[in-house]
Amino acid sequence: MIEKIQILVAAHKDVEMPKDKTIYVPIQVGTALASKKFDGFISDDTGHNISKKNLNFNELTALYWARHNSDADVIGLVHYRRFFSLTKQKSIQSILPEEDLRRLLRYTNVIVPKKRRYWIESSESHYRHAHHGEALDVLREVIATRHSDYLVAYDNNMKKTWAHMFNMLIMRRAEFDAYTDWLFDILFAVEVQLQDEVDNWDTYEKRVYGFLSERLLDVWLTKNHIHYTEVPVIFMEKQNWLLKGGKFLARKIGFGRV
Questions:
Q1: Any domain includes 225
Q2: Which residues constitute the domain of residue 104?
Q3: Which of 11, 95, 156, 183 has the greatest CB tally within 10 Å of its CB?
């Protein structure tokens, strides 16, 4: 039997989507907060959902929707600006095709982006330089109390100088369900403790649970000894590397979040 694959393409605006509708499915995130719904998109406010939390959870509202509403055997999440691609060519026509994905799935149950390397700082120090560090303190406390068997894996991963970022993944159903159940159990518990502070943060920092989840994927993979395959990611828009580098150095030498 051919497995059903559903790769959700998260977007908060109406943009060009992959032509291959067989596996790539656009999903409008934060639909419950939007003034209009996009034609041809799944709305993340249908079924069992957390669409209203999108300002804090970002693309994770699509991940939650998939966990509770998708019937696919293989589920993935990408972004309208970021896609998996074996060719690395910045083109909507060059994203990972179904044929290559099915070939990869013969050998692995989990696909993640290539590692993002920080080189001169750890995953933890990078987060603390870029975001509100108290969120990490609450996160670690929640893991210690609710999932203490993951604490060693968490501490070890936060010391690493790389991480699988962007909340992008493709997983078979069993791994997807196990990961997302664990992830949201932690994030909802963090939300209870942190939300009063988050309400006073700027729009960017309000996306805290999306930022935290980027640090949690490797914790789950490590603790559960999950074999995974890395695939490169292409960023569809132009990036100002000079600006990004300047912001990184400013954070590193102590000017705080910029």
A1: yes
A2: 5-252
A3: 95
